[in-house]
Amino acid sequence: MVKITKSKIDIQQVIESVAGLQSGGIDVFIGTTRNHSQGKKVRGLEYEAYEPMAVNIMERLVRQVNETWGVRASIVHRVGSVPIGESSVVIAAASAHRDEAFKACRFLIDELKRVVPIWKREHFEDGTVEWSRQSHEQVESQ
Amino acid sequence: MVKITKSKIDIQQVIESVAGLQSGGIDVFIGTTRNHSQGKKVRGLEYEAYEPMAVNIMERLVRQVNETWGVRASIVHRVGSVPIGESSVVIAAASAHRDEAFKACRFLIDELKRVVPIWKREHFEDGTVEWSRQSHEQVESQ
Amino acid sequence: MNITLKLFSIAKDLAGFDERQVQFNEGDRAEAVLRHLAGLNPRFEQWHSSVRLAVNLEYVSNNHPLQDGDEVAVIPPVSGG
Amino acid sequence: MNITLKLFSIAKDLAGFDERQVQFNEGDRAEAVLRHLAGLNPRFEQWHSSVRLAVNLEYVSNNHPLQDGDEVAVIPPVSGG
Q1: Could you give the C-alpha distances from D28 to A82, D19, D49, D54, D65, in angstroms and in order?
Q2: C77–A133: do the CB atoms touch at under 8 Å?
Q3: Given B89, B136, B140, which is nearest D80 (Cβ)?
Q4: Taking the CB of residue B51, how many other CB atoms lie within 10 A of it?
Q5: Average pLDDT for residues B27-46, to the nearest whole number?
Q6: Fold assignment, A2-125
Q7: Which of A100, A23, A71, A104 is nearest to B86 (CA)?
Q8: Which fold has domain C2-75?
């Protein structure tokens, strides 16, 4: 399952989307919004996505971990305003062997942060608003 | 949080036990019971624990990942009968940086399977019942 | 050629719009979009090295040839997750 | 010395009990527990190499000296997770 949603992410539902009687281990990564960034207090966050392209790339990544490691994976990313402490992204990877589940889940979040066209905008308590540049270096080094 | 329980594990609750406004990433490992083992169909499973020792060791492991990687972690293991497809163990590791969350979560499940005194007993469809020996080699090599 | 230009994040803020139909010349490459944006706002110059371009939902190199009807997206450094 | 012996998993099945008070001699080491079990059921012999011993909830080596009142647990290969 690959999804971009404006609603709160139902973690249990993401896990269930990859679980199955054959699975031995599921690794789940949950990205949560933080109350600080660059040493400043964050009041709120929002995410923007180039949705059709983001979905295409995420579906390709999910196929890739399936072909490489036999892992069944799901990625759900939230867009719009995300309250502090709530999940912005949930990735689940299920496999008969935990090694593959861990590898696939790590690969998916690393690739997501590197190439999936989604942007975070932080509203700081001092009133400033900024597009996050957290992935600047990775993109430049491609 | 470290817990051994006879009830179904509430995954959301384990995640919430490590989440906090400071956390950026949470890695969660979920071990689920499978419907096959050693090429045979499994009808049911049960886990037995040497509870006080298991809890002591898991608490020590949780302290260890906190001291080593600054990770806040929880481990919940189910004992007694566990229906096929349900979770036998849930481990959550929260950190400001995902690398540490992944490392800690992986370390905890690997160590749990190596040293925590918990045993799995499989009821096969052919009527046989066996204590799992999945960790035999690891224990011998210590 | 008629191109649909889509801007996101900082690129959208610098240009002041998120989507626009723009005419390009036959034979123009994707980098023509970056020149077009620099013409709108000189501050785009400092972003050239970090911005990537996508044509019809796929990343392309700057010398990818444009075709009539293409949707060209300007992708500033991503920060999802 | 009075020792509380606790058995788990395959060890419990082989012995036919899960907990018992057993008398050991002053100066006995933890391995005396393994000899005691082999006396109850010869099949324990084949488990000696893979079984670990714990005294008062901590893993110990086979030559750990026992003390009156110790709880000694026989830990077959674990298989949690």
Answers
A1: 64, 19, 19, 15, 6
A2: yes
A3: B89
A4: 14
A5: 91
A6: Aldehyde Oxidoreductase; domain 3 (3.90.1170)
A7: A23
A8: Ubiquitin-like (UB roll) (3.10.20)
